[in-house]
Amino acid sequence: MARIPLCAGINHFHKTPDREWFETDAVLRVSLGNFVFFTILAIIMAGIKDQKDPRDKIHHGGWMAKIFCWVVIVFLMFFVPNGVVSFYESISKFGSGLFLLVQVVLLLDFVHGWNENWVAKDEQFWYMALLVVSVVCYIGAFSFSGLLFHWFTPSGHDCGLNMFFIVFTLILVFVFAIVALHPKINGSLLPASVIALYCTYLCYSGLSSEPRDYECNGLHNHSKAVSTGSLSLGLLTTILSVVYSAVRAGSSATVLSAPDSPRAGADKPLLPFSKADEEAEKKDVPRPVTYSYSFFHLIFSLASMYSAMLLTGWSTSVGESGKLVDVGWPSVWVRIATQWATAGLYIWSLVAPLLFPDREF
């Protein structure tokens, strides 16, 4: 990979870059191809309201043609000048941040839906299940926090920044429970406990991304294993977020729903259609789509950016830490910022109905 002839006729180097530069460049070019492909599909699918629209067949079919177009677009990206790739690298940081925000919103939507589903059963067994899961999550959060103190605040070193991150995470854990259980807040312990555990994981993810030569990173002796584990978990959460976003795109419970979606307001948009829908189909009335096709592909576009940043360590970790993936101070602050955004959005989801009782959230 140290020599990529496709770039030779376009880019001229005063000094041939090292192998790591070409590896990062290749990842960015493939990511750019994915971004272009899904963005084009998102534009094509904009405004589809019913399944009589000819574009509906493009969304659900034509797989061989779409795969061929994807391969061609990715191939063409290796002929793009370095300036374009550098610009894409810059905007990918913002696109990745937006994707992380989408992950947070979807997580909040999931835990609130989970809680409502079990509470709606109105049976003692499910109430006990809520309590058990909540207690387990809180035990996990506090136990994990203890390990963070052990791993990232070694004795004999000034680790004030790591101490701040961990203590602030514990404060958030308590704040979530206090706010959720406040008499004036219509909250529940289950979402608070799940968000607390997730924020603790984000703290660990951020601290484990610190450079391996940083004296407060106690995982430096297991750097390769930690890097591989962080990469695998990051890619897994990316895939799950993309799939879940597609499933929830037409649900009224999420703020990511298309505002003009014909199915907006449906509690279970992906369940079988109602009898009214079946009768409409018999009368050859156009059947509305169950989610926004354009939003579906837009999520994949943002995921392409995020995957590129994850694989390249936000385009800086290669230079800082050799071949380690997702390691470096940019990765640390991205995780910490995501934690703060998660905490802010969760607290807002609880407080907003109290502040604006006339509005539906």
Automatic annotation (TrEMBL):
Pfam families reported in the protein's UniProt record: Serinc (PF03348)
Membrane topology: Multi-pass membrane protein
GO CC annotations on file: membrane
UniProt keyword list: Membrane, Transmembrane, Transmembrane helix
Keyword ATP-binding: no
Name of the featured protein: Serine incorporator
Family (UniProt): Belongs to the TDE1 family.
InterPro entries attached to this UniProt entry: TDE1/TMS
Transmembrane portions of the chain: 26-46, 67-88, 94-113, 125-149, 161-181, 188-207, 227-247, 291-312, 332-356
Keyword Mitochondrion in record: no
Subcellular location: Membrane
